[in-house]
Amino acid sequence: MDGKLLQISNLRTYFFTEAGVVKALDGMSMEVNKGETVGLVGESGSGKSVTAQSVLRIVPRPGRIVGGSVKFEGQELLTKKEDEMRKLRGPKMAIVFQDPTTSLNPLYTVEKQLTDILMLHRGLSREDASKQALHLLDRVGIQDSERRLKAYPHELSGGMKQRIAVARALSCDPVLLFADEPTTNLDVTIQAQVLELLKQLQNDLNMTMVMITHDMGIIADMTERVTVLYAGKVMEVAATPTLFKSPKHPYTEALLKAVPTVKQTRALEVIPGNIPNLIEPPTGCVFHPRCKYAKDVCVKKEPELEKVAEGHYAACHFWRELELEGKGH
Amino acid sequence: MAWRRFRRNKSGLIGGAIVIFFILVALAGPYLVAYPPRSYESLYEGDAGDPPSFKHPFGVEISGIDVFSETVDSTRNDLYVGLAATLITTLIGVAIGALAGYFKGAVSDILLGVTQMFFVIPVLLLILLFARVFSILVFKGLGLTLIVLILSFFGWSGIAFIVRGETLRLKEMEFVQAARSLGARPFRLLFRHIVPNILSPVIVIATLDIAGFILTEVVVSFLGFGDPNTSTWGLLLNEGFPYVRTTWWVALFPGLAVVFCVLGFNLMGDGLSDALNPRLRE
Amino acid sequence: MQHAISGVNWNSKEKGIEMKSTMRSGDRILEVNSVVKYFDVLERGIFRKKRVGEVHAVDNVTFHIFAGETLGLVGESGCGKTTAGKVILLLEEPTSGTIRFEGRDVVDTFQHGHQDEIKQLRRSMQMVFQNPYNSLDPRMTVYDIISEAFVIHRHIPKSQWTERVYELLRMVNLEEYHAERYPHEFSGGQRQRIAVARALAVDPKFVILDEPVSSLDVSIRAQILNLLIDLQKKQHLSYLYISHDLSSVRQISQRVAVMYLGEVVELANADELFDRPLHPYTQALISAVPVPDPDHKTTRIILPGEVPSPINPPNGCRFHPRCPHATDICKDVPPTFEDKLTQGHFVACHHADKFV
Known about the structure:
The structure holds 3 protein chains of 3 kinds.
Chain A: E1 4-17, E2 20-33, E3 37-41, H1 48-56, E4 63-72, E5 75-76, H2 82-88, E6 93-96, H3 100-103, H4 110-122, H5 126-139, H6 145-149, H7 158-170, E7 176-180, H8 188-205, E8 208-213, H9 216-222, E9 225-230, E10 233-239, H10 240-245, H11 250-258, H12 296-300, E11 306-309, E12 312-314
Parallel strand pairs in A: 3-8, 3-9, 6-7, 7-8
Antiparallel strand pairs in A: 1-2, 1-4, 4-5, 9-10, 10-12, 11-12
Chain B: H1 2-8, H2 10-32, H3 41-44, H4 67-102, H5 106-120, H6 123-138, H7 144-154, H8 157-171, H9 174-182, H10 186-222, H11 233-240, H12 249-276
Chain C: E1 28-44, E2 49-66, E3 70-74, H1 81-88, E4 96-101, E5 104-105, H2 106-112, H3 115-124, E6 125-128, H4 142-153, H5 161-171, H6 188-200, E7 206-210, H7 218-235, E8 238-243, H8 246-252, E9 255-260, E10 263-269, H9 270-275, H10 280-288, H11 328-332, E11 338-339, E12 346-347
Parallel strand pairs in C: 3-8, 3-9, 6-7, 7-8
Antiparallel strand pairs in C: 1-2, 1-4, 4-5, 9-10, 10-12, 11-12
Helix pairs in contact in C: 4-5, 4-6, 5-6, 6-7
């Protein structure tokens, strides 16, 4: 199998709601190579969480994947039957969700939640599964693991719950891990702990990870390549240093300028307007209403994702002409 | 917005339609019936004990009472009990619940204790007990208004609990804190901010309560504790029950009326519940 | 009676007075002295609830805010920063300590003062809350929400209400037609603006901003932050900016205070605090924030364990169980909050000298 572990092409996932059809993902493409950590950055409504849900085929109702292709290890996932997908979830792909309070079942102990998965996918006996669960807790850095194993989620702190969520995701040694805003609900110092943990696991296990976040700091720190999503479409794809230093899409530039940093006090440049309504998204380029460089063609014609350089793509009509500012300016 | 959702809820609409139907019947009652309430006229016309016919759509009791007229007249009375009792219990329940939920300390504890006490009291048994004593003392069955009063006096605790819970929850919400920080006083906070936001569950419960109170009246009258001079479905059932084998229409039609009326309110309440409690925004 | 510093006539019973302050910048508009707030932990008894412990939410906090400045208040969950904000506004009563606004004792006014005095205080100090989805009454139109201030205080004649509401909406970059709409029709960022407009409707002098941008998207945050900074200049406001997001705190604050487990552990000018933090907790906190710069070498100071419970805070220095530099003295003796060496840079640490 060549390096590409995951290949998403032109994925379209729509939500059929009372108010109308929400085009959460409208032609999204992304590639992940084995062993790398890829960032998926966007704000609310960008479709970043929906991407992970679509790959794992756990899109909640009223959502449905309506088009495109998702190839994992060379196999098309969108045509697989549900029980085939079930065999993949856990042993091959896993996800860590944003809120550990809701992603862990409050009725069962930690032990039960972990052993259930191990017994199901690995066919282990209860004792073996318990031992493995203990080992997993140690692996994610939980002290006093024996006691914690018997605890219920509500007895544990946010950081610890999230570590258990990570342990659960890793329990069957998946090849691909999605981390969907794993630290957004956590305190800053706990966030640091969990990010360090993920980094460490990434190194030790040579895990392929997709880090979904809105935090550019986490992108800078944890990822090698980045895909920037806005309103269900890909704006830019690049290696992380390149994205920060020479962005080629106005949205990326605007995002970098609007984000405050703890390293210096500087004026923030405002992005006017609001996240668009996904039921009736703007015509042409979906970012045009808020783009300071927008011209006529941006309203009429949707830009294609064009190649800027090796591994660097931008969906903008004017990427050649615009001299955009990145970090370090 | 909630109205749109309600429109889409089929069972809620059906329930609403049924309720409206009964209300119209109740209002139009006097014009629909051929015989005055509790009249034995048909006896003199020789129709006593007749099965349903064109002249007597629901048949006639052995005593000569026209079942159709009675059923229609009862609609007004039973709805009166249901609606009046619900109105009063809702007002009391909201007031006590809001006060109990908003204030801390002795006031709240006492109100809560009182609510709990009233909640535990079996209202139906109490009514029957009271009716028994009453009938011994006064030689009369319980009139409608008396039933309404007793139901109102004892039936507010369910709503009070819900309202108290919601008040506790809303009290800490930031829009209430914001009004406080603007300088609003407790009265304004309670009645301008908290109560309007509690209305949704209260409306649902009230709708279901109407059905419940009607049923209580039916039981009371069926057991013979109601006023024999007031037409109610329960009374009709009481009169028809011993003769189910023969003049079965006497029990059937009032019975159906009760079933549909209660069903209507329940469905409407269900529909309202779905409409007023949206799962999530988009 | 004219108050010495502020020049406001406190005993006036006339309504509709435009509140003028003769506070000069450099004057302290807010003084928080040794404020303590404990919450009782109750257990259900049969008839009564029993007090089994106390949550030390705010434990002996002292800081001042100068007129026209923004003081940032940072810390993680459970540190007491939100409670501190609520206590200052008397949305919660302090267990002990004094709070002075423009020299006037706030707690005393609320407990023993005249209705008019209380109302005047309420007008002077306002708050913008964290959650834009909960801080606006869903049953009221935007017009109702903003004009509620006028209803309560009547400081503007009724004929001018509509015009003033429109003016306030324009101030926060919203349109006049928004006044007829309901909160659920707006986005998070727009709701926060409505909340700001509401706070401004009473012509306050001091606004507490409790995590105003935390629930908002990144691209919207800058809008609200810039708006707040702008309004501060135009309306001569003083802010207390409470947040756990250190990046935005740095943007908007002149001075910053760091809280841990109910205590202020460090207070300094913003640039000074972020570039040269003296308290080990502050150092760890700042190092933990991911920096949006791929060249930045992340040297995170990882603190072991979790934040201890505020019901039973550790002895001595509350941070000692997690502090990489803790020594014996730290376990027994609580450090004093002192101005170490640099003017205006306060730290509560026995070993702060090491880091200078």
